[in-house]
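Running low. Got one?
___
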Amino acid sequence: MGTAFPTEEQLASQYQVSRHTVREATRHLVQAGLISRRRSTGTVVTATQQHEPYVAALGSLQELMQYTHTTRLEIIKRESVTLDEPLARLLGGEIGTRWLLLHSQRHRLEEVRPISHTLVYLRPEYAGIADHLKGRHPSIFNLHEMLYSRPVASVIQKIDAALLPDDAANLMGICPSTPTLKMTRSYLDHESRVMSASINYYPPFRFQLVTRWDRDRPDQGRDIL
């Protein structure tokens, strides 16, 4: 692992196939996590066998807590942003308010390979949460109460299909514009005011969402939107 992967020209010549065929084959290898493409280092071998995707069930608050307890965030960059109309509508915040934005990646606890690219938005009064997102840290859900005595009363989760942003693709070693599962989560206090939110991009082969409904559990499947 870590060795340079042959170029498209070399592979096309060696196997007597078109560049298009090579490009499609390498794209699948990238999505499977076997090779990684980065602007600075080129294409390198990252694994000799395909990793199993992280499997999560996120249909309840308890399942969300299990997910945050078995994963961690790695902060890459911080910046201050002002919510415009589309972002305010998506997160449930107020137009024109300034938030702390954390560009980050989510990992399994003991793994280097990220399972998602995650954008975390924190109101300024909760910006101190960012300093605690190191190592095997508590979840943002719990940090609201631990640091500020402001427990999260409810979580709104929205799921969309989206393309992976180019900057995130480079950081994750994945082809730009890869289709992803996009999950937006907003954390609300008892006054239904959004305290923090996250936008999570899950590429294929790294994350799998599984939901179960039991017929004798009438409380399941309720729409919170």
Observations:
- The chain is about 25% helix and 35% strand.
- The chain has a mean pLDDT of 84.
- Residues 19-31 form the longest helix (13 residues).
- Residues 122 and 196 are 5 Å apart (CA to CA).
